[in-house]
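Onboarding guide, step 5: your first structure request.
Type a short instruction followed by the sequence, for example:

Predict the 3D structure of this protein.
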Amino acid sequence: MKGTVGTVRRVGLIGAGGIVQKTHAVGYRALEGRVAVTALADPSESNRDAAGTLLRIAPEHRYTDYRDMLAHAPIDTVVIATPHSFHKEQAIAAAEAGKAVISEKPMAITLEEAAAILSAVKRHGVAYTVVHNLLFSQAVRGAAHLLKELGRPLLGRGEMLGNKSEATTTIEKDWRASKRYGGGALIDSSYHEIYTVETLMGSPVKYVSARIATLKFPIDVDDTALMTYEHENGAASTVHAAWHTRGPAHRGRWVSINGTRGAIRVVYGDPAPLSRYKDAPEGSNRWETVDAGELPGIPAAIEGDGTGHAAFLVAAFEALANGGPMPITGAQALHNLAIVDAACRSSDERRGIEVQA
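The system replies with structure tokens like these:
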């Protein structure tokens, strides 16, 4: 069902846990009058109650099973925010029900599952997108603007370092530490740096060399991911993630791009997240912070949206309302998953792997 300008989109949530309550909810507040969350489905009673109350969803439209919501709730769009291993089944079911689909990342946990989703979306003629939220954060938007004056990107770097305690890596505490749910440092943490660095580099990743390992925790997924990329234009980048390390000089998640005439850096969660190094006459080179909100063409920040989730949701629902292209296409999400897949193969086979999608 395509929206039109002025139409209120009726949204049903599949999954109503922390990411919905803490980040997505900021987007729904920004979209008030244009989007109404009218239903949710979550097997957790506490999630149903908390998100239902927060988003003012009628009790009769708080479902335990998402299939009941698809069959009976007054919705035309579904937002999926569940553990990774459920995305394929839920996205296909939503497409078969004729609903537009906005899915949290990753779109699936294998390339075969991703292909099945894209086939269903095409077959049923529904809109589909995957949340690549950091691209919509004000700092990354500002970084993309600054790169225009810093020459050709040569070297990109992205890193996510976390210092988890062993207690937080049990499946009871965090499904992301379980193979059953499609977790792991690579697909859950590095996923964001992969798409951010690649986008800012301005050239697709073509080859991957990687070491994916479980070095500390007694879990059945990786807690460490180290990757080196060659881009189609010959430039290089690296992306690292670790759940057992904390860097001393930053907050744990950052990206930087070095170009022929300078560099940019984004440190997420920092009071001044965006900085620039612009080559200048000898003796005057230095890093300087930049307020992305003062750059031309950068949208005003949404209050409380430090991760870009709200801005992404605004872009997605504007596209649905106007019949325009979704902010991240299925092909783009598939490509990011293909880089993840290539990294796993590279580590297993101890060689460089060409990205196939």
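Each response can be followed by summary notes, for example: Residues 330-349 form the longest helix (20 residues).
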